[in-house]
User: Which sequence fits this backbone?
């Protein structure tokens, strides 16, 4: 049996508020969204999962506004990005990030899981960047989205997206200077 | 390898090793959150309707002489063939309307 496409499932949720179709969408996208939010929040797992849950709840409640012009996953990222920016704005971005980073360093020292270290270290390196650069870099380099898709998700002009990505790469180069991929 | 290539390489490496998060309890938590939000939105809309109704009642009360209207309600009911036919007709109409609305 072939799996139903996102478009079909979204159509069912929009027409009859089908909860099981929405659960299928959550199952399909939760892992990637949770990972992306971990990268965006400096690997703060509880905050990332809370934001992911809020994203799905908001997506369900405002599913009628989804027109299908972009991919469903892009629409989810847009909601997640808006939630994340308002979260950091409310909590005064820099202070919160600083505290979260300190918590992460303690945890990573205790952790024996080497497989997750790469992702955690990358998230920590990214956390020094402004949230806009973090998101644009992650969507471009990790999710492999086109600059056009990123401009739709982040509601930025195409030229600004290019600039943000280039600046982000430059800033990240310095943080990742001492990295040796073979060791990771 | 130049610096930009290195950044790309690190992201490629991370993408290949991206962990797959299990769904354990995540979907059910989303479910609970959706139900809570729906309940809250229902409570909000009911509260708005009740407040609007109260404002309406207060406004009407000052504009319309309710005591005159209330005095026109009959104090006793006379049962005769006409009133029975009227009651049957009204209840049939009401039942048909309810069925018509619920069928949609």
Assistant:
């Amino acid at each position: 049996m072939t799996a139903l496409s996102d478009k079909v499932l979204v159509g069912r949720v929009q027409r009859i508020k089908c909860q099981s179709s929405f659960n299928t969408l959550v199952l399909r996208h939760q892992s990637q969204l949770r990972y992306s939010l971990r990268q965006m929040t400096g690997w703060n797992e509880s905050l990332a999962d809370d934001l992911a849950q809020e994203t799905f709840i908001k997506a369900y409640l405002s599913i009628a506004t989804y027109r299908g012009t972009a991919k469903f996953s892009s629409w989810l990222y847009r909601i997640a990005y808006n939630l994340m920016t308002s979260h950091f704005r409310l909590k005064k971005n820099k202070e919160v990030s600083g505290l979260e980073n300190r918590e992460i360093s303690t945890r990573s020292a205790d952790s024996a899981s080497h497989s997750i270290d790469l992702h955690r270290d990358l998230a920590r390196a990214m956390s020094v960047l402004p949230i806009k650069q973090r998101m644009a870099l992650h969507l471009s380099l990790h999710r492999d989205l086109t600059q056009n898709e990123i401009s739709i998700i982040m509601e930025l002009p195409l030229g600004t997206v290019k600039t943000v990505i280039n600046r982000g790469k430059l800033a990240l180069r310095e943080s990742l200077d001492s990295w040796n991929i073979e060791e990771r | 390898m130049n610096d930009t290539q290195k950044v790309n390489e690190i992201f490629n490496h991370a993408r290949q090793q991206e962990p797959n998060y299990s769904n354990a309890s995540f979907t059910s938590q989303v479910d609970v959150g959706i139900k809570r939000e729906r309940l809250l939105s229902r409570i909000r809309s009911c509260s708005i309707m009740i407040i609007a109704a109260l404002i309406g009642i207060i406004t009407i009360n000052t504009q319309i002489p309710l005591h005159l209207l209330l005095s026109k309600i009959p104090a006793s009911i006379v049962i005769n063939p006409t009133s029975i036919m009227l009651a049957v007709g009204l209840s049939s109409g009401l039942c048909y309307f309810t069925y018509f609305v619920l069928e949609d």
Remarks:
- The CA atoms of residues 20 and 27 of chain B lie 15 Å apart.
